[in-house]
Amino acid sequence: MEQKQIASLEYKIEKEYGNIAGIIVLKDDNVVYKKYFNQCSENDPIHIFSVTKSIVSMLFGIALDKGCIKNLDEKVIGFFPNYQIKKREKTIQHITIRNLLTMTAPYKYRFNPYPKYFSSEDWVMSSLDFLGGRGKIGNFKYAPIIGIDILSGVLINTTGKSVLEFAQDNLFYPLGIFVDKNIYFQNKQEQLDFYKSKGANGWVADLKGTNTAGWGLSLTTMDMAKLGQLYLNEGYWNGRQIISGKWIAESTQVQSVWKARHLKYGYLWWVIDEAEHSYAALGDGGNAIYVNPKDRIVVAVSSLFVPGVKDRIDFIKREIEPLFK
């Protein structure tokens, strides 16, 4: 980029996207732009909110490759033999891993019952209690937090490791990503402080040590860029196959549609443009990993949490991507 274009981009970021912590753009496997804002640095992990979901999708791809999970059509309830199904509750018995990955599982709540969920010591069991009901399996119902933790339980029960340990061994360490510990909250204020923090290295867990699947992971901007590059390179990293190309292709193509918002979804990834096969991991506050295989571009944007931020995909496609095509 010319210096004038850089200055124009950074001026717009400061004026219109003031909560951005860092941006990294990779083109043809090379860093072509890197900049940090708000006194953040390359060493500061940022809470990436729902981008966590896409990392969990990666872990399911690895677990499937390793044979820990037979297929996505296995019934979820089968992984929790000690769970007592409520009387007259039949729907839950038919919900599959695929339904959870594609957000096509029904839940008993109309509005997210966060107080009841967060006050529970076991977020997996709490999520199972909310699963099912009278909704129809196959209809898109986005679960921002409650429900998605069931996938953490499936990973634990099939791999014999915590979600963080499985991620460390099979995804993070091979890429040079260092997530050190579980993060626990003693009260609501600690949780709210974490939302706005920078530099907190770890992955949120409930009191039983089960890591969250829908939010709660902290990564640096470069960590995010690496994960995007791994997908762009069809699962290869330094000559080693970390995730199968088959899983990447399948998880980033349209598997379900949020008709009310005209949004397309894969396996915990948002499908942005089917023609160029671009896709993204998106998190609250404006966190994003955007991948465009057609133009060999990866854009990672980390952001400090504020509500109601401007659309990051629109920002990436309008302000960043054209500069590097």
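^ that was protein a. below is b, sequence first then the tokens
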Amino acid sequence: MPMQDVKKTDMKSETNVKRVRRRNRWLPLYIVIVLVLTAGVGVALSTTVFFNVETIVVTGEAQQYNVTDIVKAADVCSGDNLIKLNTDKVAKRVYDELIYIEHVDVQKKFPDELVINVEKCRESYNIVYDNGILLTSATGKIISNSMEAAEGLPVFYGYLPSVLSPGEKLVSQDQQKDKIFYLFTKIMSRELSSPITSVDMTDKYDMRVCFDDRIIFDLGNWNELEYKITLAETVIDRLGIDKKGYLTMVGNNQCSFRDSSVVDELEPIKPMETQLAETTATTISGSGSTETTTTETTTTTTAAENP
């Protein structure tokens, strides 16, 4: 009987192949685990050991406060972690704490620096209310609450503030008056040829504006406010700097001016008195045409009250 060839199997080699296959199968998972652990260690180190505040730089303009005041208000200390630091909250703390700060911008500069840039409040408006006068910045931040108006600044009457505390944002009891006020501030931020010195918004449907302490403009409601102010400014420029009197909207695109010598002080505030005077009425339309008449009329004028 012939002998059969015996095929030998290397058991060790087969075992090694299986091990290699098994290793390769789990290799992606091993890589993911290593990456996760590495990232976790990196995050832990970055929020504990690395990127901690070592330097706080204060820039900008705010004469009322020194660097120590601003850093104290920011409530940030050396060693605080930049990664964890919320810059918006830091900025809000500075804004709320320091009355004469208008804008705050906080930036992180890695690896270890925090920059706080501040802009000072600029006294801009007097807001008259029943028990005093609020002095506010251009953006409506209340700077002070007193009984005296700041000289040389526009005065608003009839705003009805609901917030009176310095450092707070100006808010009216009437939401529409808020919109009117900020629309006026937008217009007044331009360099008007005849600056607005006071605004009476007691009746928001029948408002009065005083230009340059000499021309009272009855503009009606606040619809198309920017257009009305621009039209009034054009008319006043044509009248000249020596004119005093009353300007009134006529229709949608005309203004009528009454030049009157009985106007003593042009503040759009209450007490009414009637006097006989010679007035010159000039009607100027948006197209530029003018019409002038002179008559003896009974004129109702507005006397000024000191707030």
